[in-house]
Amino acid sequence: MTEPTPAETLTAAAERLETAATSAHRASPEPWTVTDEHVIRCADDMIVADRSGTDDPAERADLPYIATMHPGVGRAIAAWLHRAAGRTAEVQRHLGDEFQDGALDQDAHDALAVARAILAPAVPLHGPQDATTATHAGTETPDARSRPQEGAQAIECRECGDTGACAGGPCAIAPTPAAGLRDRIETALDDFDAARATDAVLAAIGPELTAIAEAAAAAVEDQRARADRAEAQLRAVRAELDALDSEAPYLSPVARTAHTQATDRIRAELDATNTPKEP
User: Fold this and answer.
1) Tens of each residue's pLDDT in the chain, 279 residues
2) What are the CA-CA distances from residue 41 to residues 21, 32, 37, 45, 140 (Å)?
3) Which residues fall within 8 angstroms of residue 112, CB to CB, at 6 or more apart?
4) What are the sequence ranges of the domains in the chain?
5) From CA 14, how far away is CA 83, in angstroms rounded?
6) Edge-to-edge strands of the sheet including 33-35?
7) CB 51 within 8 Å of CB 59
8) DSSP state of 104
9) CB 241 within 8 A of CB 263
Protein backbone atom coordinates (compact mmCIF):
# COMPACT_ATOMS: atom_id res chain seq x y z
CA MET A 1 0.00 0.00 0.00
CA THR A 2 1.37 3.40 -1.00
CA GLU A 3 2.32 5.67 1.89
CA PRO A 4 0.10 8.80 1.92
CA THR A 5 1.83 12.06 1.09
CA PRO A 6 2.01 14.81 3.72
CA ALA A 7 -0.68 16.78 1.86
CA GLU A 8 -2.96 13.72 1.81
CA THR A 9 -2.33 13.15 5.52
CA LEU A 10 -3.21 16.77 6.32
CA THR A 11 -6.36 16.64 4.19
CA ALA A 12 -7.52 13.34 5.71
CA ALA A 13 -7.02 14.66 9.24
CA ALA A 14 -8.80 17.93 8.42
CA GLU A 15 -11.77 16.08 6.95
CA ARG A 16 -11.96 13.68 9.91
CA LEU A 17 -11.84 16.50 12.44
CA GLU A 18 -14.31 18.59 10.45
CA THR A 19 -16.75 15.68 10.28
CA ALA A 20 -16.38 14.98 14.00
CA ALA A 21 -16.89 18.65 14.90
CA THR A 22 -19.93 18.94 12.65
CA SER A 23 -21.43 15.79 14.13
CA ALA A 24 -20.69 16.80 17.72
CA HIS A 25 -23.41 17.64 20.24
CA ARG A 26 -25.45 20.51 18.73
CA ALA A 27 -22.37 21.32 16.57
CA SER A 28 -22.37 24.87 17.85
CA PRO A 29 -19.19 26.97 17.46
CA GLU A 30 -19.85 28.66 20.81
CA PRO A 31 -17.75 27.53 23.81
CA TRP A 32 -18.87 24.80 26.19
CA THR A 33 -18.79 25.35 29.93
CA VAL A 34 -18.36 23.15 33.00
CA THR A 35 -21.13 23.67 35.55
CA ASP A 36 -21.41 22.28 39.07
CA GLU A 37 -17.92 20.74 38.57
CA HIS A 38 -19.35 17.66 36.88
CA VAL A 39 -21.52 18.72 33.92
CA ILE A 40 -20.54 20.14 30.52
CA ARG A 41 -23.17 22.26 28.82
CA CYS A 42 -23.18 23.79 25.35
CA ALA A 43 -24.36 27.31 24.48
CA ASP A 44 -28.08 26.42 24.58
CA ASP A 45 -27.67 24.82 28.04
CA MET A 46 -27.96 21.27 26.72
CA ILE A 47 -25.85 18.72 28.61
CA VAL A 48 -22.86 17.43 26.65
CA ALA A 49 -21.27 15.29 29.38
CA ASP A 50 -22.26 14.42 32.93
CA ARG A 51 -19.95 12.98 35.58
CA SER A 52 -22.38 13.50 38.46
CA GLY A 53 -22.30 9.75 39.15
CA THR A 54 -18.82 9.99 40.64
CA ASP A 55 -17.04 12.16 43.20
CA ASP A 56 -13.61 10.97 42.14
CA PRO A 57 -11.58 14.10 41.16
CA ALA A 58 -9.57 12.04 38.68
CA GLU A 59 -12.72 11.13 36.74
CA ARG A 60 -13.79 14.76 36.60
CA ALA A 61 -10.36 16.18 35.80
CA ASP A 62 -10.82 15.85 32.04
CA LEU A 63 -14.07 17.86 31.91
CA PRO A 64 -12.39 21.31 31.48
CA TYR A 65 -10.33 19.93 28.60
CA ILE A 66 -13.39 18.40 26.92
CA ALA A 67 -15.23 21.70 27.30
CA THR A 68 -12.29 23.61 25.85
CA MET A 69 -12.14 21.39 22.75
CA HIS A 70 -15.68 22.25 21.60
CA PRO A 71 -16.79 22.00 17.92
CA GLY A 72 -15.75 25.59 17.19
CA VAL A 73 -12.15 24.75 18.11
CA GLY A 74 -12.32 21.59 16.03
CA ARG A 75 -13.51 23.49 12.97
CA ALA A 76 -10.79 26.12 13.40
CA ILE A 77 -8.09 23.45 13.62
CA ALA A 78 -9.59 21.66 10.60
CA ALA A 79 -9.42 24.91 8.60
CA TRP A 80 -5.76 25.35 9.65
CA LEU A 81 -4.99 21.79 8.50
CA HIS A 82 -6.72 22.43 5.16
CA ARG A 83 -4.57 25.53 4.62
CA ALA A 84 -1.42 23.59 5.53
CA ALA A 85 -2.46 20.84 3.10
CA GLY A 86 -2.79 23.38 0.28
CA ARG A 87 0.66 24.87 0.94
CA THR A 88 2.21 21.41 1.27
CA ALA A 89 0.66 20.26 -2.01
CA GLU A 90 2.21 23.30 -3.74
CA VAL A 91 5.65 22.40 -2.35
CA GLN A 92 5.19 18.77 -3.45
CA ARG A 93 4.24 19.85 -6.98
CA HIS A 94 7.20 22.24 -7.16
CA LEU A 95 9.83 19.74 -5.99
CA GLY A 96 8.32 16.62 -7.59
CA ASP A 97 10.37 13.48 -6.92
CA GLU A 98 12.87 15.50 -4.87
CA PHE A 99 10.23 16.34 -2.24
CA GLN A 100 10.97 15.39 1.37
CA ASP A 101 9.25 16.29 4.63
CA GLY A 102 12.26 18.42 5.46
CA ALA A 103 11.32 20.86 2.69
CA LEU A 104 8.27 22.00 4.67
CA ASP A 105 8.25 25.03 6.95
CA GLN A 106 7.79 24.78 10.71
CA ASP A 107 4.06 25.53 10.54
CA ALA A 108 3.55 22.63 8.12
CA HIS A 109 5.58 20.34 10.38
CA ASP A 110 3.41 21.35 13.34
CA ALA A 111 0.27 20.74 11.29
CA LEU A 112 1.56 17.30 10.25
CA ALA A 113 2.17 16.37 13.89
CA VAL A 114 -1.40 17.37 14.75
CA ALA A 115 -2.75 15.53 11.70
CA ARG A 116 -0.95 12.31 12.61
CA ALA A 117 -2.25 12.57 16.16
CA ILE A 118 -5.79 12.96 14.84
CA LEU A 119 -5.40 9.98 12.52
CA ALA A 120 -3.63 7.86 15.17
CA PRO A 121 -6.84 6.11 16.35
CA ALA A 122 -7.17 4.66 12.86
CA VAL A 123 -3.88 2.75 13.16
CA PRO A 124 -2.50 0.39 15.83
CA LEU A 125 -1.22 2.22 18.90
CA HIS A 126 1.84 -0.05 19.06
CA GLY A 127 4.50 -0.97 16.52
CA PRO A 128 4.59 -4.33 14.74
CA GLN A 129 6.79 -5.90 17.46
CA ASP A 130 4.57 -4.68 20.31
CA ALA A 131 1.25 -5.54 18.69
CA THR A 132 1.39 -9.14 19.98
CA THR A 133 2.20 -8.15 23.55
CA ALA A 134 -0.21 -5.25 24.16
CA THR A 135 -3.94 -5.91 24.27
CA HIS A 136 -6.89 -3.58 24.62
CA ALA A 137 -9.00 -3.93 27.74
CA GLY A 138 -12.25 -5.70 26.96
CA THR A 139 -11.01 -7.53 23.86
CA GLU A 140 -9.84 -10.61 25.82
CA THR A 141 -10.75 -12.32 29.05
CA PRO A 142 -8.85 -11.45 32.28
CA ASP A 143 -7.19 -14.88 32.18
CA ALA A 144 -5.98 -14.29 28.64
CA ARG A 145 -4.64 -10.85 29.59
CA SER A 146 -2.83 -12.26 32.61
CA ARG A 147 -0.92 -14.80 30.55
CA PRO A 148 1.85 -13.24 28.42
CA GLN A 149 2.04 -14.79 24.98
CA GLU A 150 4.90 -17.11 24.25
CA GLY A 151 8.05 -15.17 23.37
CA ALA A 152 6.46 -11.86 24.38
CA GLN A 153 7.86 -9.52 27.01
CA ALA A 154 5.69 -9.27 30.13
CA ILE A 155 4.22 -5.83 30.82
CA GLU A 156 4.68 -4.68 34.40
CA CYS A 157 1.95 -2.54 35.87
CA ARG A 158 3.26 0.86 36.95
CA GLU A 159 0.81 1.06 39.85
CA CYS A 160 0.92 -2.39 41.45
CA GLY A 161 3.99 -4.05 39.92
CA ASP A 162 1.95 -7.02 38.68
CA THR A 163 2.87 -8.50 35.30
CA GLY A 164 -0.60 -9.92 34.81
CA ALA A 165 -3.98 -8.28 35.20
CA CYS A 166 -5.02 -5.96 38.02
CA ALA A 167 -8.52 -5.95 39.39
CA GLY A 168 -9.69 -3.55 36.75
CA GLY A 169 -7.22 -4.49 34.02
CA PRO A 170 -3.63 -3.28 33.62
CA CYS A 171 -3.26 -0.04 35.56
CA ALA A 172 -0.83 1.64 33.22
CA ILE A 173 2.14 0.99 31.01
CA ALA A 174 5.15 3.07 31.91
CA PRO A 175 6.85 4.65 28.90
CA THR A 176 10.22 3.15 28.14
CA PRO A 177 13.36 5.30 27.86
CA ALA A 178 13.72 4.04 24.29
CA ALA A 179 10.54 5.89 23.32
CA GLY A 180 12.04 9.26 24.24
CA LEU A 181 15.28 8.38 22.49
CA ARG A 182 13.36 7.40 19.35
CA ASP A 183 11.55 10.76 19.39
CA ARG A 184 14.86 12.62 19.64
CA ILE A 185 16.32 10.56 16.80
CA GLU A 186 13.30 11.26 14.61
CA THR A 187 13.51 14.97 15.40
CA ALA A 188 17.21 15.01 14.50
CA LEU A 189 16.48 13.16 11.25
CA ASP A 190 13.72 15.63 10.39
CA ASP A 191 16.11 18.54 10.99
CA PHE A 192 18.74 16.85 8.81
CA ASP A 193 16.19 16.23 6.03
CA ALA A 194 15.06 19.86 6.25
CA ALA A 195 18.61 21.15 5.90
CA ARG A 196 19.36 18.77 3.03
CA ALA A 197 16.15 19.66 1.21
CA THR A 198 16.83 23.38 1.65
CA ASP A 199 20.32 22.92 0.22
CA ALA A 200 18.86 20.95 -2.69
CA VAL A 201 16.32 23.68 -3.46
CA LEU A 202 18.95 26.43 -3.28
CA ALA A 203 21.31 24.41 -5.44
CA ALA A 204 18.55 23.92 -8.01
CA ILE A 205 17.36 27.53 -8.20
CA GLY A 206 20.71 29.22 -7.51
CA PRO A 207 21.94 29.08 -11.14
CA GLU A 208 18.54 30.28 -12.36
CA LEU A 209 18.59 33.27 -10.01
CA THR A 210 22.16 34.09 -11.09
CA ALA A 211 21.18 33.91 -14.76
CA ILE A 212 18.16 36.17 -14.14
CA ALA A 213 20.31 38.71 -12.30
CA GLU A 214 22.93 38.71 -15.08
CA ALA A 215 20.25 39.12 -17.76
CA ALA A 216 18.68 42.01 -15.83
CA ALA A 217 22.06 43.73 -15.46
CA ALA A 218 22.75 43.30 -19.18
CA ALA A 219 19.32 44.73 -20.05
CA VAL A 220 19.96 47.77 -17.85
CA GLU A 221 23.33 48.38 -19.47
CA ASP A 222 21.77 48.03 -22.92
CA GLN A 223 19.08 50.58 -22.10
CA ARG A 224 21.67 52.98 -20.72
CA ALA A 225 23.75 52.65 -23.87
CA ARG A 226 20.69 53.32 -26.07
CA ALA A 227 19.80 56.35 -23.97
CA ASP A 228 23.35 57.70 -24.26
CA ARG A 229 23.29 57.27 -28.04
CA ALA A 230 19.93 59.02 -28.33
CA GLU A 231 21.11 61.91 -26.17
CA ALA A 232 24.26 62.27 -28.27
CA GLN A 233 22.17 62.43 -31.44
CA LEU A 234 19.89 65.10 -29.96
CA ARG A 235 22.90 67.14 -28.84
CA ALA A 236 24.26 66.93 -32.39
CA VAL A 237 20.96 68.21 -33.79
CA ARG A 238 20.97 71.14 -31.36
CA ALA A 239 24.60 71.96 -32.29
CA GLU A 240 23.66 71.88 -35.99
CA LEU A 241 20.79 74.29 -35.31
CA ASP A 242 23.19 76.65 -33.55
CA ALA A 243 25.52 76.48 -36.57
CA LEU A 244 22.63 77.32 -38.89
CA ASP A 245 21.68 80.29 -36.69
CA SER A 246 25.14 81.74 -37.23
CA GLU A 247 24.41 81.88 -40.96
CA ALA A 248 20.93 83.41 -40.58
CA PRO A 249 22.13 87.07 -40.82
CA TYR A 250 23.33 86.39 -44.36
CA LEU A 251 19.94 85.14 -45.54
CA SER A 252 17.28 87.21 -47.21
CA PRO A 253 14.51 88.52 -44.96
CA VAL A 254 12.03 85.96 -46.24
CA ALA A 255 14.51 83.08 -45.93
CA ARG A 256 15.60 84.28 -42.48
CA THR A 257 11.98 84.31 -41.27
CA ALA A 258 11.40 80.79 -42.59
CA HIS A 259 14.67 79.67 -41.00
CA THR A 260 13.75 81.15 -37.62
CA GLN A 261 10.30 79.52 -37.64
CA ALA A 262 11.74 76.12 -38.54
CA THR A 263 14.55 76.20 -35.98
CA ASP A 264 12.20 77.46 -33.24
CA ARG A 265 9.83 74.56 -33.93
CA ILE A 266 12.70 72.04 -33.79
CA ARG A 267 14.05 73.56 -30.58
CA ALA A 268 10.58 73.32 -28.99
CA GLU A 269 10.47 69.62 -29.85
CA LEU A 270 13.97 69.15 -28.41
CA ASP A 271 12.98 70.96 -25.23
CA ALA A 272 9.95 68.68 -24.94
CA THR A 273 12.32 65.69 -24.77
CA ASN A 274 14.02 67.35 -21.75
CA THR A 275 17.36 66.98 -23.50
CA PRO A 276 20.20 68.83 -21.75
CA LYS A 277 21.38 71.83 -23.70
CA GLU A 278 24.98 72.38 -24.56
CA PRO A 279 26.66 74.57 -21.92
Assistant:
1) 578 888 899 999 999 988 988 887 666 777 888 887 788 888 777 888 888 888 788 878 888 888 887 888 888 899 999 998 888 888 878 777 666 655 677 888 888 889 999 888 654 434 444 433 333 333 333 343 334 444 444 444 444 555 444 444 334 333 444 445 556 666 766 676 666 666 666 676 777 778 888 888 888 888 888 888 888 888 888 788 788 777 777 777 888 788 788 888 887 887 776 655 555
2) 16, 6, 11, 5, 36
3) 6, 9, 10, 84, 88, 101, 104
4) 136-172, 184-279
5) 9
6) 33-35, 39-41, 47-50
7) yes
8) S
9) yes
Nearest to 105 by CA among 2, 198, 218, 199: 198
Cα separations in angstroms, 40 against 19, 65, 68, 258: 21, 10, 10, 100
Neighbour-count burial of 40, counting CB atoms closer than 10 A to its CB (0-12 exposed, 13-18 middle, 19+ buried)? buried
How many residues can be counted in the chain? 279
**pTM for the complete prediction?**
0.41
- Closest to 14 measured CA to CA, from 61, 84, 63: 84
